[in-house]
Amino acid sequence: MFEPGTYRFDPIELQSRTRVGLVTDGDEPATFIPNDEGCRGGHPYFNFNYVDGLVIDSIDLDFGQVDSGGPLFMFLEGESVIRNLSYLGSCSNQQGVVRVEVPDPNGTALIDNFVTHNTDENHTLTAVYVSDGHAGELTFQNCSIDNFSDNGIYASAPGGPNGNDGVVNVIGGTFRNNNISNIRLGSTGARAEDVTVIVDDQTPGWGQLNSRGIRLRNQEQQEIHNCDIRFGPEAADSFGAIVFHQANGGARVTDTSIQIDRDGIPAFKAFPPDDEPETSPVFENVTVSGDASGGPVAEIAGRPGTVFRDCIIEQPDPNRQGFLIEGSQGCHFEDCHIEIGQQPFALNSSTVTLENTRVITQQGERLIENETFENEPVEL
Q: Is 0.90 topped by the overall pTM?
């Protein structure tokens, strides 16, 4: 237990311990500052290695004062709770801020109100990395992560070929101007819910900037629910607000709003999958708005059976295109409203059925009660 104040620490490692706590007793957090021993790069400054029942509450980690420090590692067993934790600053050759996993299949960890901002615009820095050994359930709640060059929450590794496929939940919180992706999920059943993603400026990073909103990579059956994703006019370049990688099978997106004011960025982009998935992307009660010009509102490739239900798409700029669908048979739009500047659908080796769907372009308006289109434009 710590009183509010400032404490200097050398690197700490705790191995195979039970019921470990770093907790402030008071209304203000305790601040930990590293001793000036040089930057540890990818090696941890705080290392909780196979700790059962870790509790951290109301601690500020301040690594912005000297070129010293390194990441926080947490390999957790049992039930752990990390609340009201901030991490500010990084040293010159640091690779990440936090690495976390719950290797215990029955273990859980809650990280609530974690705050970290890449204040130094480090060009090679990951905010949170969930490593492939994660097998339990890990929940990030009400976190604030901004301006990182290599993902905000990078949580797709557990769903990779060498991963233990542990569940990752991201509930609430705000993620802003993170390169590669603001949130990256890839384990079976992972979800993002009540999340706000904002891209309204350039991001740090070398080479091409690609600030995806939510990126789905590996496995399938992820859930994106009640999220708010916004791309401002000055946003960094991006593959899209919600992007399906080739290694992802499919996910469900519900009750989510997307605003795209940056020209040329799609709301949805689904790359053709590496393997034939068991599920298809499903979009239900999703709204897309904004003043974006140029490029399509969605690109769907190699995703047969993709469904849009009760969706409202309103991107009426005269140079905005609609849905580019390729190699995707049996796609279905039901009870949708689609207002787009140019051709609403471009189909290549694809079929799309429109049911009770209103389509509006510069050329006119049409309510389509039930009609299937194959490799042909939707005539108004």
A: yes
Write the pLDDT tens digit of every residue in 250-296: 999 999 999 999 999 999 999 999 998 889 999 999 999 999 999 99
Number of CB atoms found within 10 A of residue 51's CB: 21
- Averaged pLDDT score across all residues of the chain: 95
- Run of H or E residues at 137: strand 137-141
Q: How far apart are CA 329 and CA 288, in angstroms?
A: 24
As given in the structure block, the two tokens for residue 64 are 């912005």
The SS3 of residue 120 is coil
Hey, what amino acid is at 168? Answer: V
Which tokens go with 102? 């719950």
DSSP 252-314: EEES-EEEE-STT--SEEEPPPSS--SS--EEES-EEE----SSEEEEEES-TT-EEES-EEE
Closest CA to 211 of 171, 170, 180, 245: 180
pLDDT higher than threshold 80 for residue 175: yes
Closest CA to 353 of 304, 287, 299, 295: 304
